[in-house]
Amino acid sequence: MTQWWLVAAMGLAGFVQSTIGFGFGIVTMGLVGWLVGVRETAVLSAGAALSLNLFVLWRLRAHFRWERTVPIFATVLVGAPFGVLFLAHAEPRLLHLLLGLLLVASAVQSRIERLAAWRWHPVWLGGPCGLLSGALSGAFGTGGPPLVVFVSSQRYDRLRYVATVQLLLAASNVVRCEELLRRGLLSWSLLPGSGLGVIGALAGALLGLRLLRRLPDRVLRIVVALFLLLMGIRYLALCA
Question: pTM for this one?
């Protein structure tokens, strides 16, 4: 029962991420975390998350550009090891509070036409978003929202937007997997579960990519803004 639930949950998570660019970690935590625990789910999903990022990025590689991406890419790599350290030792309340505030602010900003037209600066705002994303990815595998906040502000078309987010998530997940292995949190005993997660995630991503290519940019932006708002409220509620 647990194995089938794992495949189904990560399949849904893969579908969500390949259509709106993020959400794998959030959906996985929500559907699997209550069954096996948050810490165990964060470790178990690491391999599937990285495989999903690389698969979607490969399928959309022709749409990726490095322009305005380098600063946030660098800070994602810096933040991820601290996230793994946080997972091992700390209380998640502060990160949840910061993330909740950022998500709500971004959702509101993206739906106000005059503010939505403003591109966030790649260094002054992309850098902090990258650090927060790396820390969240290393700690819980949920580094997507801060990246989406920044990348959405750049007004890319939907395929470039998803490709860019996948590259940034892949970078943080490479560091995340390395740190989990180095600290002994990711062991051989978890390999069967991780393998099932990879299968589910990639199957869901295949379906999601088909929908993504048919989804108008305006609809995608509305869906992402709504998702960010709901996630922001959820994280703030956890801190109440």
Answer: 0.79
Q: What amino acid occupies position 29?
A: M
Give the model confidence (pLDDT) of 48-82 as tens digits: 899 999 999 999 999 999 998 999 999 888 887 87
